[in-house]
Design brief:
Length: 236
C-alpha cells in the first residue's frame, strides 16, 4: 500500500521565510520525518516551492535540475550590493533616456547561453564557506562563472522607474544578477525589486497551496495536496 505522504507538495511560498524555514515548518506541523525541497527561493521571493516528502526526497537533484519560469519587477536607477531590494544601495544613477524600445532591445540580447558569476550575497560556497558570510565581513572572493541558458526574457510592463518581466531559464540562474547586468549595460543601473516563481519543470504555481491554508489544515488536508510518486514515472 503506497504511503500517502511519499510524494510531491506544491507550496505557494510567501515573502519572508527561507526555503528551509518552509521545510522545517511543514516537518514540525505534521510531524513528518523526511521533508526536503526541489530548489530554493530567496527569502523575499514568492511563488512555487516544490516540497518533497518521504521517499520523494530522493528526487531532489532531479527536481532542482528542472528549468524555471519567473515573473519579476526590476527597478532602474539604483545599484545594490545584493542586486536586489534587500541590499544596500551603492550608487544611484539618472534614468533619463531609458525607454521601452531600448529596454526590449537590451533584454533580447540576454537570451541564449551566457556565463554568470554568482553574486557575493548568495549561498554558493567557496572553500566550504557561503559567499554571504564573506560579504558580511566586507570581503569579496573569486568565484567561477557558471553557464546558464535564458530561454525567454520578455517585457510585460514598463512604467519608470520599474519594469515587469517574464523569465524562462535553466537551474542556477540568479535573476537578480541578470537585472544587475542589464542595468549596467543600459548605463542607469538596476536591481530586482520583486520576484515570483511561476513554474518549475512542468509544475505550476496555479496548482500550489498557500502556506496559510496548508498550516491551518490537518494530516488529511495535507494528504489531499500531496501528489504521489506514481505521478512522476520518469523520476521514480
Amino acid at each position: 500500500m503506497p504511503d500517502p505522504f511519499d510524494g510531491v507538495l506544491l507550496v505557494d511560498k510567501p515573502g519572508g521565510p527561507t526555503s528551509h524555514d518552509v521545510v522545517d515548518r511543514i516537518r514540525r506541523q505534521f510531524r513528518l520525518r523526511k521533508v526536503g525541497h526541489g530548489g530554493t527561493l530567496d527569502p523575499q521571493a514568492t511563488g512555487l516551492l516544490v516540497i518533497l516528502i518521504g521517499r520523494a526526497t530522493r528526487l531532489s537533484s532531479l527536481m532542482m535540475g528542472a528549468d524555471k519560469v519567473y515573473q519579476g519587477t526590476m527597478t532602474f536607477g539604483a545599484i545594490t550590493d545584493s542586486h536586489d531590494a534587500d541590499g544596500t544601495i551603492l550608487e544611484e544613477r539618472d534614468i533619463v533616456g531609458l525607454n521601452r524600445d531600448r529596454l526590449i532591445e537590451a533584454m533580447s540580447g540576454f537570451q541564449g547561453d551566457r556565463m554568470q558569476t554568482p553574486p557575493m550575497v548568495s549561498a554558493v560556497k567557496k572553500d566550504g564557506v557561503p559567499l554571504y558570510k564573506h560579504a558580511r565581513k566586507g570581503r569579496e572572493v573569486e568565484r567561477p562563472a557558471r553557464l546558464i541558458h535564458v530561454y525567454e526574457f520578455r517585457l510585460l510592463d514598463f512604467a519608470l522607474p520599474c519594469a515587469t518581466f517574464r523569465l524562462g531559464c535553466t537551474k542556477g540562474t540568479y535573476v537578480r544578477s541578470l537585472c544587475h547586468e542589464l542595468g549596467l549595460q543600459l548605463g542607469c543601473g538596476a536591481h530586482l525589486s520583486q520576484l515570483c516563481r511561476t513554474q518549475s519543470g512542468n509544475l505550476k504555481l496555479e496548482n500550489a497551496v498557500s502556506m496559510d491554508v496548508l498550516l491551518n489544515g490537518d494530516l488529511s488536508d495535507l494528504a489531499r495536496h500531496v501528489m504521489p510518486m506514481s505521478a512522476f514515472p520518469s523520476l521514480r
